Amino acid sequence: DAGVTQSPTHLIKTRGQQVTLRCSPKSGHDTVSWYQQALGQGPQFIFQYYEEEERQRGNFPDRFSGHQFPNYSSELNVNALLLGDSALYLCASSLVPGANTGELFFGEGSRLTVL
Amino acid sequence: KNEVEQSPQNLTAQEGEFITINCSYSVGISALHWLQQHPGGGIVSLFMLSSGKKKHGRLIATINIQEKHSSLHITASHPRDSAVYICAVRMNYGGSQGNLIFGKGTKLSVKP
Lengths: 115, 112
Hints:
The structure holds two protein chains of two kinds. By secondary structure, chain A is an all-beta fold. Chain A contains no helices and eleven strands. In chain A, a hairpin with a 5-residue loop joins strand 7 and strand 8. Chain A is globular and about 40 Å long. Helices cover 0% and strands 65% of the residues of chain B. In chain B, a hairpin with a 5-residue loop joins strand 4 and strand 5. In chain B, the strands form two sheets. In chain B, strands 2, 4, 5, 9, 10 and 11 form a six-stranded mixed β-sheet that branches. In chain B, strands 1-3-8-7-6 form a five-stranded antiparallel β-sheet, with no helix packed on it. The termini of chain B are far apart. Chain B contains no helices and eleven strands. Chain B is globular, with a radius of gyration of 14 Å. Chain B is mainly β.
């Protein structure tokens, strides 16, 4: 049973470029959440997708957008990259948002470096 | 002030020692998670708590809802326990699954 998979694992971009990160949730999970983790900090919530809609959003600008596909996989898009966007981007999957049960399953993350 | 505070930030222990990591939070929560993050970045969920105490192998997690405090204990610590341990709380969100707020983590190093 594959867990949460993320791609790419590492990437380097320059300021002003755009990036797309991908996440496939654990089998049977339908909710995907994205987090940004700067070096030495705890993760920060970006947004959560369920039924192909953004259900909750953290304190991130509109440059951060996402999408969820019918197969529950998800993408995180960041436009007009800034140096401060350099971070580890983590995806976590879970069951329906209303179910406050169960473990969290995280991917290994995508490490983005903006030069 | 952060909504989730962990202590200590860094912890060095000798193999075999009993370890305690603390987490305090200031918001209403529906659950608290203890997570383990290894240097590669991937995060593994250790426990989810909404009350009381849970045990898994050498790991024990407790939570006191009234005091808004949780502890993670590691008995008979081992060098392979070296990692960053993160406390995360799930906000109450009108009955739905609120987003997580994370502590900054406690970096544990266990020396042989």
